[in-house]
């Protein structure tokens, strides 16, 4: 491990030093200000040849108004700054007499030609709800009526190509194994912890969701299905400004949310912060039917469970960005949340040869009192080496997640007469979990060549994730609480990943090429202290990626890509302990799970820069698949996970935005795929597959300049996953948005799943299993949300330069 770290460090330093070891080049630097000496970072600055005023180079100021031209040849020049709403400003003649000359001149001051703008909020044109880019699909939820008042999980469930199953597992384009990031930073949480985090994240704090099906080598190789990046709102306008949001709603229970976003930017300093509070009462219902045959004797189990919960969550983000120089920005970001969850669940299970005449009934009640805490700190530095785009970015992240779940259980058997059979079984549990995450990474970008058509990207990353899960279970015997050694478990897990990557991109005429290679060395240590079972592993993998883009014409573009990816087992699934839900149902981890590897091929075609078609093939080896086992004698059923030989997915995706009339815009996304599984699983051989498709059609109606309406129609056909067959479902969402006070205030009303049609139907008939699961989640919710923006709203339209995507991912200005 140490040898590999040293190799990575040497590789990175050699690359950086080699590419940075250029001799000094001539440069011209300056600053763009308005009449009040405020920086104008939205301006465009051109370097002109003095002899004929032809444009030699173009630059864009940073947030302090500073700009720089490097690599300037000997000669005489002028510098011109332009911005809509301002008079152009032209510098004096600048002479570059040597190859190492450095010229600085007085600030260029632009005079405002429209003083009315001082009192008017200037906003950029509203982006479409779904936007297709060459390497991703972006869901712009910031101004969407359907997103107002919802949680991050609610918004994900309504995103094109995204599905969330009954166990909160997230799939993208039909594929599980998705990595979810927040502002480009991986969460490193288990599926259950991630679901809890997303359900306690206020959707009003989200700007957009990026769906990346085939990431390049620059990103972590984790996630066989790709990545979902949740981009949080950032406000970088000059002065002091903010946004206040308050909302209420009702579904299974009452809901309330409020948030405050503040930003203060002056000169080189930018301070920002967000606080949100959510109070959510809700629930869901699950029905499970199992039929067990033992020596021609049939025993049926019909279970109905009702979950009632209340979640209260406080979350915050606060940060500072400071320009230490014209080309260097340092930043610190603090974030965290504190959540309290109360669950009151009850379950009735009818047991007998026929459910119409059961032999007995098992009643189970459970009370959960949970708390979730997180704290994270990020320190970052971005050094812009020159105006050609060379930059060095470093990030260090330290975070801690902790949760505690206290539960009380009451299991009572009743005879058909209604009398209690035996003594009620009273038990309780305490399940504290602590996760510590430490991540450090550095990325270097180096454009070069004529017109900067070539680019090298390289970097290194190290992550360390440790988890401590200490579950304690007790039963009441004779009025005394006694430890249940069969259900008490202490599991420790640590995983270290050291990575390095190199990307090269260039253009050859109409052909764009990007090739990269990423290496990741993984060391894991899973230790079940209770069961005295410890498994250590280490392995080195290489992940190549290739992207080809051909620009046939302005109206026709094509792309072809390949990448290899990995999905490591969730540390919770590696815990060999068996968790009993009741005496007939349990879940067990598998310490021998291996990583799954995916080879992903994708073809894309874009017509008229708005209609997008993609098709591809994914093959996953050693796929981590959920399976079930059943003991016909004891009538006990358990859920576990095993490695299945292979999974194959053929898919096609079509995204069609249409402007039907001046007031009616639509965006329809169709995702069709074939998913097949093949290999031994659970002592039997599984070979099944099915064609499936998903449709999401969003419609926006501009009724008045200050009144818009949105509707969304969603359909998912039946599909198979592992041993399960999942039924079809559909829903319709709708909402209204009314703006006031020059669009500084908005009132939004929405209803999700208007007809309450989203019901999950899951069936399995595999080996000796015959199970049917019906789950109804809280999908129909009415919400009313008010938003008000205040403060200095000048220059609200922000230019997106070629680095905007990278900046959003690294949380830098």
UniProtKB/TrEMBL annotation:
Query: Which GO CC annotations does the UniProt entry carry?
Result: cell outer membrane
Subcellular location per the Swiss-Prot or TrEMBL entry: Cell outer membrane
**What start and end residues bound the annotated signal peptide?**
1-20
Q: Per UniProt, which keywords does this protein have?
A: Cell outer membrane, Membrane, Receptor, Signal
What is a single Pfam family found in this protein's UniProt entry? OMP_b-brl_3
Q: Which residues form the Outer membrane protein beta-barrel domain?
A: 384-788
Query: Could you give a GO molecular-function term held by this entry?
Result: carbohydrate binding
Q: Which domain of life is it from?
A: Bacteria
Question: PANTHER family from the entry?
Answer: PLUG DOMAIN-CONTAINING PROTEIN, TONB-DEPENDENT RECEPTOR-LIKE BETA-BARREL DOMAIN-CONTAINING PROTEIN
Q: What is this protein called?
A: Outer membrane receptor proteins, mostly Fe transport
């Amino acid at each position: 491990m140490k040898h590999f770290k040293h190799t990575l460090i040497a590789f990175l330093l050699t690359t950086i030093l080699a590419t940075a070891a250029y001799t000094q080049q001539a440069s011209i630097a300056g600053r763009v200000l308005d009449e009040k000496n405020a920086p104008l970072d939205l301006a465009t600055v051109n370097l002109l040849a003095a002899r004929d005023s032809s444009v030699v180079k173009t630059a864009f100021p940073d947030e302090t108004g500073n700009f720089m031209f490097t690599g300037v040849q000997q000669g005489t020049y002028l510098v011109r700054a332009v911005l809509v709403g301002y008079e152009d400003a032209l510098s004096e003649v600048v002479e570059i007499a040597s190859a190492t000359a450095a010229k600085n001149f007085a600030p260029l001051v632009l005079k405002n030609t429209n003083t009315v703008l001082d009192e008017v909020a200037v906003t950029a044109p509203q982006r479409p709800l779904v936007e297709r880019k060459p390497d991703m699909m972006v869901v712009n939820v910031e101004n969407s009526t359907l997103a107002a008042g919802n949680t991050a999980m609610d918004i994900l469930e309504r995103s094109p190509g995204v599905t969330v199953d009954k166990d909160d597992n997230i799939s993208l384009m039909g594929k599980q194994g998705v990595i979810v990031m927040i502002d480009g930073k991986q969460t490193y949480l288990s599926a259950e912890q991630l679901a809890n985090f997303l359900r306690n994240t206020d959707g009003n704090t989200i700007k957009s969701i990026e769906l990346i099906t085939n990431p390049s080598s620059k990103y972590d190789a984790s996630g066989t299905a790709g990545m979902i990046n949740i981009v949080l709102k950032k406000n970088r306008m000059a002065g002091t400004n903010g946004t206040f949001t308050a909302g209420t709603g009702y579904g299974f229970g009452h809901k309330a949310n409020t948030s405050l976003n503040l930003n203060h930017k002056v000169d080189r300093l930018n301070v920002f912060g967000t606080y949100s509070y959510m109070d959510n009462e809700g629930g869901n219902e699950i029905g499970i039917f199992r039929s067990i045959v033992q020596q021609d004797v049939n025993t049926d189990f019909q279970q109905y469970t009702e979950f009632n919960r209340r979640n209260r969550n406080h979350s915050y983000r606060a940060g500072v960005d400071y320009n230490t120089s014209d080309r260097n920005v340092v930043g610190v970001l603090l974030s965290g949340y504190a959540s309290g969850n109360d669950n009151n669940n009850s379950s009735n299970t009818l047991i007998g040869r026929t459910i119409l005449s059961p032999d007995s009934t098992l009643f189970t009640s459970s009370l959960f009192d949970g708390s979730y805490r997180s704290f994270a700190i990020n320190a970052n530095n971005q050094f812009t080496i020159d105006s050609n785009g060379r930059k060095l970015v470093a990030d260090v992240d330290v975070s801690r997640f902790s949760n505690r779940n206290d539960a009380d259980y009451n299991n009572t058997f009743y005879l058909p007469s209604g009398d209690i059979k035996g003594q009620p079984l009273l038990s309780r549990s305490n399940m504290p979990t602590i996760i510590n995450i430490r991540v450090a990474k550095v990325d270097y970008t180096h454009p070069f060549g004529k017109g900067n058509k070539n680019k090298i990207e390289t970097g290194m990353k190290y992550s360390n994730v440790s988890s401590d899960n200490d579950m304690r279970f007790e039963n009441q015997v004779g009025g005394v609480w006694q430890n249940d050694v069969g259900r008490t478990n202490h599991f420790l897990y640590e995983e270290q990943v050291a990575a390095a990557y190199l990307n090269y991109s260039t253009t050859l005429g109409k052909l764009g090429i990007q090739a990269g290679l990423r290496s990741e060395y993984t060391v894991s240590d899973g230790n079940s202290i209770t069961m005295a079972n410890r498994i250590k592993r280490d392995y080195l993998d290489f992940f190549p990626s290739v992207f080809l883009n051909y620009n046939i014409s302005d109206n026709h573009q094509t792309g072809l890509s390949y990448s290899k990816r990995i999905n490591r087992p969730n540390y919770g699934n590696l815990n060999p302990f068996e968790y009993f839900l009741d005496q007939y149902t349990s879940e067990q981890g598998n310490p021998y799970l291996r990583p799954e590897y995916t080879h992903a091929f994708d073809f894309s075609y874009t017509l008229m820069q708005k209609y997008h078609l993609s098709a591809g093939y994914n093959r996953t080896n050693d796929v981590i698949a959920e399976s079930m086992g059943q003991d016909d004698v004891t009538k006990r059923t358990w859920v576990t996970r095993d490695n299945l030989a292979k999974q194959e997915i053929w898919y096609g995706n079509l995204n069609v935005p249409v402007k039907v009339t001046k007031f009616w815009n639509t965006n329809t996304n169709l995702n069709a795929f074939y998913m097949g599984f093949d290999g031994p699983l659970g002592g039997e051989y599984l070979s099944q597959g099915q064609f499936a498709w998903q449709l999401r059609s969003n419609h926006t109606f501009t009724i008045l300049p200050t009144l818009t309406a949105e509707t969304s129609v969603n359909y998912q056909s039946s599909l198979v996953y592992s041993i399960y067959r999942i039924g079809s479902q559909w829903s319709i969402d709708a909402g209204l948005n009314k703006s006031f006070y020059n669009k500084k205030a908005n009132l939004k009303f929405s209803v999700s799943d208007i007809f309450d049609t989203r019901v999950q139907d899951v069936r399995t008939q595999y080996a000796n299993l015959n199970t049917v699961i019906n789950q109804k989640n809280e999908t129909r919710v009415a919400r009313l949300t008010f938003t008000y923006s205040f403060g200095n709203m000048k220059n609200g339209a922000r230019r997106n330069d070629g680095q905007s995507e990278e900046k959003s991912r690294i949380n830098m200005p």
